Amino acid sequence: MLEKLDDPGLRDWYSVKDIEHGWSRPVLAHQIKTHLHLREGAAPSNFPPQAFRNGASARDHAPDRAHHPWHARGPRP
C-alpha cells in the first residue's frame, strides 16, 4: 500500500501513523485516499499553541469528569 506513494516523506508519515494507530489495510488506504496528512491538525482548538508542548495532549488538559460535582453526587432519586 505505502509503495504506491511517490513521496518518501509521505510514506514515512503514513508508516508512523499506521504503527501508532494500528490501522488495518482498508483504514490505511482510506486515510491515504482522503489525504489525512493534509487534514490532521487543521481542526480548530480552544487550546493555545503552547498548550501541547513537552508531550502533553488534549486529554492532559481536559477536566477530570469523574471528579465533576454532577458526577460525584450519584444517581438522582
Explain how this protein is built.
By secondary structure, the protein is an all-alpha fold. It is built from five helices and no strands. The chain is elongated and about 35 Å long.
SSE diagram, text form:
Layout: H1 8-21, H2 25-33, H3 36-39, H4 58-61, H5 69-72
Give a brief rundown of this model.
With 77 residues, the chain is mainly alpha-helical. Helices cover 45% and strands 0% of the residues. It has helices at 8-21, 25-33, 36-39, 58-61, 69-72.
What overall geometry do the principal axes of the alpha carbons give?
Answer: elongated
* Biggest sheet descriptor: none
Q: List the uncertain runs.
A: none
Rg estimate, integer Å: 19 Å
The span between the termini is: 56 Å
Which class do the helix and strand fractions yield? Answer: mainly alpha
Spell out the helices and strands N to C: HHHHH
Percentage beta strand: under 5%
Number of beta strands: 0
Helical coverage, percent range: 40-55%
Number of helices: 5
**Overall residue-averaged pLDDT value:** 74
Question: Which key terms come to mind for this protein?
Answer:
0% strand, 45% helix, 5 helices, single chain, mainly alpha, 77 residues
